[in-house]
Amino acid sequence: MGLYHTRPTVSDIRAIKARGQKISMLYVTTLDEAAAANAAGIDMLSIEGRFFSPEMREAAGNCFVQVGLPFGPFGKLATAEDYLREAFRFMAIGADCVYCAASLDIQKALCDNAVPVIAHVGLIPSQATWTGGFKAVGKTAESARAVWDHVKRLEAIGCFGAELEVVPDRVGEVISKSTPLIMLGMGAGAGADAQYLFAEDVLGHTTGHKPRHAKTYRNFAAEYARLQQERVAAFKEFISDVETGAYPAPQHAVPITDAEFERFAASIKA
């Protein structure tokens, strides 16, 4: 789907799934990352609410943008009204859909108001304590069935899609093929509708844990380290120039004619 001439709609994304075409998706945090994703032709972006702004929407160009509504303990949203107000605010800026990992009744309230909702199944980071922490979900028949049932509940309330995180590839494929929801796979195998990675993993400057499903395409960590060394070196050279008088040089100063300077000097002696 990459390099759309106009921004795709929910209907367009559903049509892509129907065609069996794979979707590329990145989590980004900066204007540069969003602009690069747009220039490259990435289909979908995931952007947390704290990073989303009119400037970020402009940088994202024709990418279909999912904006994250921070779940209760990780933000200030609690009631359905809270979530609705925030969703409407982000959609006014240009969000194409919202991510919501809150309760089914809150998700349904959003859906009932025609907000395209991306939910979360499998390993849900904000609720990981219920599934044993940050590890794969769906490795037993019972656990896999629980993920399936969760997806079916999301279908019933009208969700647009769901992040499908760290489940066995065969489970991910069966679920993705058996639901109209757009399944955004993160560590869920090739059968998911979208393949979703963090830009920091793709670019090789992950600061925390790097998950097994992450793939690195560039080594920005080394480049950032080199740039930091260059910053320090440049600042040291500046200090030296200040101390020796090499800076500022004549070209860095504002000139004044001799006549005007003499008039100024005479005025302060008067």
From TrEMBL:
Keywords: Pantothenate biosynthesis, Transferase. Gene3D superfamilies: Phosphoenolpyruvate-binding domains. Its EC number is 2.1.2.11. One of its GO terms (molecular function) is 3-methyl-2-oxobutanoate hydroxymethyltransferase activity. InterPro entries: Pantoate_hydroxy_MeTrfase, Pyrv/PenolPyrv_kinase-like_dom, Pyrv_kinase-like_dom_sf. It holds the Pfam family Pantoate_transf. It is an enzyme of class 2 (transferase). Belongs to the PanB family. Homodecamer; pentamer of dimers. This is 3-methyl-2-oxobutanoate hydroxymethyltransferase. It comes from Rhizobium herbae. The lineage of its organism: Bacteria, Pseudomonadati, Pseudomonadota, Alphaproteobacteria, Hyphomicrobiales.
